[in-house]
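Hi, here's the filled form for the chain we discussed.

Project: internal
Contact: R.S.
Residues: 262
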Amino acid sequence: MHYRRITIISAAGIIILAVLNKSWAAYSAATIFLIWFALSWYGVFNIRSQFIGKTYWRGNRNEKKIALTFDDGPYEPYTSQILDILKRYNILATFFLIGKNIERYPEAVKRIQEQGHEIGNHTYIHRRFFYTLFPAIRDDINRCQNLIKNITGINTNLFRQPLGFRNPSIVKMVEDLNMHMIGWTFRTYDGTDQNPERIIKRALNNAANGAIIVMHDGCDKENKRKDGTVAALPVILEKLLDDGYKFVKVSELLGINPVISD
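And the returned structure, exactly as it came back:
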């Protein structure tokens, strides 16, 4: 992993410079630290960065395929409404589910699977992991994983970090679980903005070969409506289909196995 190797090299360089006890050495050590710090924070907040660890954020740029993903569900009635729309257009998507919402709407999870869609782990309570300790990370991921497996029989290896924020502990945990960290090419920001026109505009302006799109069928809080997402989705699908795009599940777009082999 780039992060571990560069951290070790940076630490060794700082120690050597500190031993030299020269004024120029102190400035050099400070420079090394600041560069390492900047790279680390870039890796935490930029979903495309591979510095902390591997994250999938785009498929093949030469193929006119797009993966549509939905976060924070299941959440009714919106998950069912979105499933109806996807069925109408014969489109398969990937749903990254929150464990506490799985407990509330297990039938929606069953329907996602029955319609042939893909399911990924989005943690149990949508915890902001970049400041969370290792044991809590393990518990949150495993609780969601067990809920998905108990309902679907599938041991998914697709994981999406809430908000996309990562730290070395999260990456290590995902690697230990033999899971893939799935990011995105762009977001429609429908998690906070439910204006359908703006959702449509963001989706159509950013669509490109190999793109992974993030939309939301649910939320991590109570009583947040998704009417804007539901209204925008058919318009987005029709336009992109007319433009010649094929919608595929994220595992197909990336060429990875979506299930952990027993």
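Let me know if anything looks off before we file it.
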